[in-house]
Structure prediction request, 265 residues.
Amino acid sequence: MRWEELTGDRFAEAVDECGGVCAIPLSVVERHGRHLPMGTDTYLGRETLTRAAALEPVIEFPDYIFTQIPEARHRAGTISIDGDLMVKLLDNVCREIARNGCKKIVLVNAHGGNQGLVTLFNMLQLYSPRDYVVYLVQPFMVVFSGDVDVPWPIESEGHAGPGETSMIMTTRPDLVHMDQHVAEEGAALGRLSALQDAGVHTGISWYSDFPTHYSGDAALADAEAGDRLLDAMAQSVVRALRAIKADTTARPLQDEFFASSERPV
Ligand SMILES: [Zn+2]
Prediction:
C-alpha cells in the first residue's frame, strides 16, 4: 500500500493490516552511462517493492532519493546531498514513520553505492533508545548472485550493465537509449590499479576506473531476463518482509541493550 495513495482516515487501519511494517525504497539520482535514465535505481527500487507488496502487504514509503553519491558529482544531473545531512534526514524520516505507527522500518536499498551509508546508519541506531527497529535488505545483490537465469556471464555485469539495462527495458522501455550506448566506456580504466592491486582504496577509486558511470556490457541486455531479475529481487524482499513481520526478538533485544548501555558492566 503506497503511503501517498492512502487517505488520512484509512492510514492507521492500513498500518495494522501491514503489521506496522513500512518499507523505504532507497535510491539516488545519478548518471547510468549514456543509455539509461538517471532515475534507474528509483524505477527499479519502486518496481521491486511494488511486486513484493503485491505478495506481502507493506506500507510503501514514497521514493527516497537523498542517499550516497559523491562519486558522481562531476556528472550532470547528479543529486548529491551532504554526508551529515543524508544521515540526519534518513533518521528524521524514520522517526516520522515510527511516529505514524510503523515500528518496523525496512530500508530496501536499490543503490549499490549506498553500502557506506546503510551500514553506518544501521549502527547509528544503537546510540539512543527508540520505539522502532530499522531493518536493512539489499535485493539488488540478486543481480550479482548468479542465481537467476540470464543470457550474460557474471563478469559482464556492472553499473548500468546488462542487469540494470534489462530491468529498465522491462519496466520503462521508453527510457532505454541503446543507440547512445558506447561499449568501450564500460571497461575499467585501471588508473589506480597499482593501489587497488595492493588492496588500497581511496574516495577517488571509482572515478579512476569509471568516470562515465558505466561498467560492464549493456549490449547483452534482454528484457525477459530483466523481468526474471525483478521477480527474484521481489521474492527476496517478500522473504525479508515475512521474517520481519514474524520477528518479536529484535525490539526487546534493542531495549535490553539500551537499558544496559546506560550502566555498562
Ligand atoms: Zn543503478
Remarks:
- The two ends are 44 Å apart (CA to CA).
- The chain has nine helices and four strands.
